[in-house]
Amino acid sequence: MAKQTKTEEPLAPVKKKSPPAVRYTPNITPLIDVLFLLLLFFVLAGRVRQDEGFLPGSLPGPNNATSDKPIPPPLIVEVRGGDVHGGEDRYNTQAYYAVSGQADSTDSPVKLRDTLKKQFDLVDASARNDAAVYIKFINARWGFVVNAYNQAAAAGYKQISVQQLDR
């Protein structure tokens, strides 16, 4: 008998198993700790403020009479830079102050304060808080406008506003 030889069949390639994909997840515990610490810091460091825009006060009732004293008309102070008499002052080194109702203008802040004080003294004592000054300036340096504002405050006015006018 003839010897049978066993033929070897080629083996199929062995598939290697790949290790499972490692999924990294961040540890959120330190993140939560830091967030709570920040929240705690801002809660403790913050200040509770009174609401803005709300002023304590009360309105008069329907039976309460309003004040019969009229509010005085505002006083207008015009501040002009340069030479009032038509000349040109290129460096704007001088300013002239004219008060409404007054014929003359002045370049002296002291005279302006005296004029404003005289007008303020004419206002009824109960209406002095309502007395107002409007400062209008034309081609004047800001220093002269601030000077007029300071003189109005020195004369006793509490309501002072400033407005720039075009030429």
Task: Spell out the blueprint of helices and strands.
Blueprint: H1 29-45, E1 75-81, E2 95-99, E3 105-106, H2 109-122, E4 132-138, H3 142-155, E5 159-164
Parallel strand pairs: 1-4, 4-5
Antiparallel strand pairs: 1-2, 2-3
Helix content: 25-40%
Unreliable residue stretches: none
Strand content: 15-25%
Query: So, CATH architecture of one domain?
Result: 2-Layer Sandwich
- State the secondary-structure class: alpha/beta
Query: Rounded to an integer, what's the Rg over CA atoms?
Result: 42 Å
User: Tally of extended strands?
Assistant: 5
Form type = elongated
Mean pLDDT: 80
Helix/strand order, N-terminal first: HEEEHEHE
Query: First CA to last CA: what distance?
Result: 133 Å
CATH-assigned fold name of one domain: Nucleotidyltransferase, domain 5
The side-by-side strand order for the widest beta sheet comes to 3-2-1-4-5
Count of helical regions: 3
Which CATH top level class of one domain fits?
Alpha Beta
Largest sheet: 5 strands, mixed
